[in-house]
Specification:
With 134 residues, this protein is an alpha+beta fold. Helix content is 35%, strand content 19%. The chain has five helices and six strands; from the N terminus they run αββαβαβαββα. Helix 3 crosses helix 4.
Length: 134
């Protein structure tokens, strides 16, 4: 979870991901909870869920963050990369993930896995990529 989570020009990807059958388990990069649009969102997953194989991927929205929060997101990205998990990144999260995965990517969204990246420019591309995650 990032303060002021931003999915950029693609809009609310959280609803789109859920519509594609993705269950989301927020991981906090700061305080244990985050207030978003007046709703308190509690963290329900941890970094141990990445290393323990209990999650199938990592979603990284963009958003305002301080250096400490960015460092924590980098750690989660590094764990996901090492575990071979797909990372769905949006807005400024794309540049952050591209840096960690050492792959060039510039798009409103992207999915990183291993040494490959698939760019997401619209909702249809998101659905196609999500369908490949098992």
């Amino acid at each position: 979870m990032r303060r002021d989570m931003d999915f950029g020009e693609l809009g609310d990807m959280e609803a789109s991901l859920r519509a594609d059958g993705v269950s989301l388990a927020p991981i906090s990069t700061g305080d244990a909870s985050l207030i978003s649009s007046g709703v308190t969102v509690l963290a329900t997953a941890t970094a141990a869920d990445i290393t323990g194989g209990r999650v199938k991927g990592l979603v990284v929205p963009g958003g305002l963050a301080d250096e400490a929060a960015v460092a924590l997101v980098r750690e989660l990205l590094t764990l996901a990369r090492a575990a071979g998990l797909p990372v769905l990144a949006f807005a400024d999260g794309v540049a952050l993930a591209a840096d960690v995965f050492e792959i060039a990517a510039e798009a409103p969204g992207a999915v990183f896995r291993g040494d490959k990246v698939a760019l997401i420019n619209d909702r249809a591309e998101l659905s196609a990529v999500v369908a490949t995650i098992s």
